[in-house]
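Quick illustration, no need to memorize.
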Amino acid sequence: MHQKLPWDLIGLLALTFSLIACGTEKRNEGLAELQRVQSAVHEMSVVVTVGANQPEFSRRLTDVLLKVGDIQQSEQQCTAKFRKNERQNVEDIYLHLVHALDAYNQSKDFFGDVHKEQLDPFDGDYLFGQKRYDALQESFPGLQKLEVAVNYPEDLGGTKYWKGDMLQALWKYAGNEEQETRGLIGRLPQK
């Protein structure tokens, strides 16, 4: 003869299954949000690959930033949808996405010719100074080091670097950060 389950146990099992289903749904929403933001940031690497002039690049970056929206709010809401043991990974993903967006944003100031052998550093606005270079190196750990374009005496402005070289370095950095996010998202179990 089979023993009947008490109603308390049946209710507890139903609640457990309901919580699991709810948790899975929230987690799937979190994964979708991560992929949405990562996909928007990836659009910038496509823009860089096909080549864009400064106005087009700036317009597309503005579009991406609008598409992403408030990234801090997205991170807070998204992180809460994951289990505690996955939240650090989600926070790391957002950190890489923020670095990529920041690098793309900073790169707007560095459009310039990269054919330095044909350029006269005294003619045009192709160079930028050591102070800005140092600030970018500090802001973006792992940013490619650049060759010095000219070493002026301090009273004439000091060491200068080619803008076009920094543009390429920032784009490469942003692309690497975005690539890292794809790997981290891929490590999250896709349940």
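The radius of gyration is 24 Å.
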